[in-house]
Design a protein that fits this description.
about 425 residues, alpha/beta, 8-stranded mixed sheet, 6-stranded mixed sheet, about 40% helix, kinase, cytoplasm, Aliphatic_acid_kinase_CS, transferase, nucleotide-binding
Length: about 425
């Protein structure tokens, strides 16, 4: 089965192609046959196109014009033409999977995209304005280029649909519940993938494990995973909630927002910008939303960068503590995402607070750029894993599983 995966961002679109020939490979993450990325340049009419294949072919071009559909058509054209050709024609693609950030309360599982589903994703753009519209754009681009090929929506919120009401419902007026204002959680595709892989690495049954998965990148979230189900998470109604992030503030006193509206004449638009784009590491350090640059500035004596690091670590430790309370114990702490995978300092600091639980990191392993391994000492009471999250592959897996299920149902009829 040939599966195309689209992962939409607010200013870019990642695309990759997988071929699954045997169900036994589902437990492994193969290299894509082909990978592409469209970067839309802010304040410019055009896009950067990047393509590479498993055999080493590379294409980099700048395409003039502001038509996103034309940019999609061009990058899909490179699948079957030129040096990056990996299939003879686009009709060989069996299914297209899309990462959709917000599925609301209605979409708790992976679904085949119909007109009703597409309209629902569009309506939910009010909850994910930076991402859901981009997903719809990708769906419509595929309709134009590949016709009636089966398209599948994999929702970032689905994994957290198992949250108990006590964790999901905010203590505001009950009308909020009726309006759909609740904790949805995000990064679910990553949290689910890492939970499953953690069980494989440990040689344990996922249904017996208590895990805290730490997805730490420009966006950050934690999930408490008990017996394979998400029972608590840090992101909430929107991705702003929870941990301190690259440019998002995370959890703050909502009274601050009332104060800014009343005393500082903030508009809704300015609040949105400040909370999402000018806070977090960037806002505190004044250096960057990239933790690597903040660390470099900290090491040069920059006091604001040091403060940003200290707040980041404090919030991370506090978040892990809240997940511990939900789980009532811990078998493994899992780090993933750009920061979680690449920052030994963050892994060390985040874990140091839990030495009283018997958690011990192997300092040597922690410094060796570990990927998909256990970095705890042999006598640690809690395992500590570093996992390379592969959301695109997880989406391809879910597309394959959904199609197999559809096939079996049709066959049984």
């Amino acid at each position: 089965m040939i599966i195309l995966v689209l992962n939409a961002g607010s200013s870019s679109q990642k695309v990759c192609l997988y071929e699954i020939t045997d169900m036994t490979v589902l437990n492994q993450a193969p290299q894509p046959l082909w990978e592409g990325k469209i970067n839309w340049i802010q304040d410019k009419s055009g896009a950067e196109i990047e393509v590479k294949t498993a055999t080493g072919a590379v294409l980099q071009e700048y395409i003039e014009g502001d038509s996103h559909s034309a940019h999609f058509a061009y990058i899909l054209h490179t699948l079957s033409h030129g040096a990056t050709k990996v299939i003879s024609q686009l009709s060989e693609i069996d299914v297209v999977g899309h990462r959709v950030v917000h599925g609301g309360q209605d979409y708790r599982n992976t679904v085949v995209i119909t007109e009703d589903v597409k309209n629902a994703i569009s309506r939910l753009s009010t909850l994910a304005p930076a991402h859901n519209p981009a997903a719809v754009e990708g769906i419509e681009a595929i309709e134009k280029s590949l016709g009636d090929v089966t398209q599948v929506a994999v929702f970032d919120t689905s994994f957290h649909s198992t949250l108990p009401d006590a964790a999901a419902i905010y203590p505001g007026p009950y009308e909020w519940v009726e309006q759909g204002i609740r904790r949805y959680g995000f990064h679910g595709i990553s949290h689910q993938y890492c939970s499953t892989l953690a069980a494989q690495i440990l040689g344990r049954d996922l249904n017996e494990l208590r895990l805290i998965t730490c997805h730490l990148g420009n966006g950050c979230s934690l999930a408490a995973v008990k017996h394979g189900r998400s029972i608590d998470t840090t992101m909430g109604f929107t991705p702003i909630d929870g941990l301190m992030m690259g440019s998002r503030c995370g959890s703050i006193d909502p009274g601050i927002l009332i104060y800014l509206l009343r005393q500082c004449d903030y508009s809704a638009e300015r609040l949105d910008y400040v909370l999402n784009k000018a806070s977090g590491l960037r806002g505190i350090s004044g250096v960057s939303n990239d933790l690597r640059e903040v660390i470099a500035a900290k090491e040069q004596g920059n006091e604001r960068a040091q403060l940003a690091w200290d707040i980041y670590v404090h919030r991370l430790q506090a978040g892990i503590g809240s997940m511990l309370a939900s789980l009532g114990g811990l078998d493994a702490l899992v780090f993933t995402g750009g920061v979680g995978e690449k920052s030994p300092g963050i892994r060390q600091e985040a874990s140091a607070a839990w030495e009283f639980l018997g958690l011990k990191i192997d300092a040597v392993k922690n410094q060796q750029q570990p990927i998909n391994v256990d970095i705890a000492t042999s006598d640690s009471a809690v395992r500590v894993l570093v996992i390379h999250t592969q959301e695109d592959w997880a989406i391809a897996q879910q597309c394959w599983e959904l199609q197999q299920g559809i096939g079996n149902r049709v066959e049984s009829l």
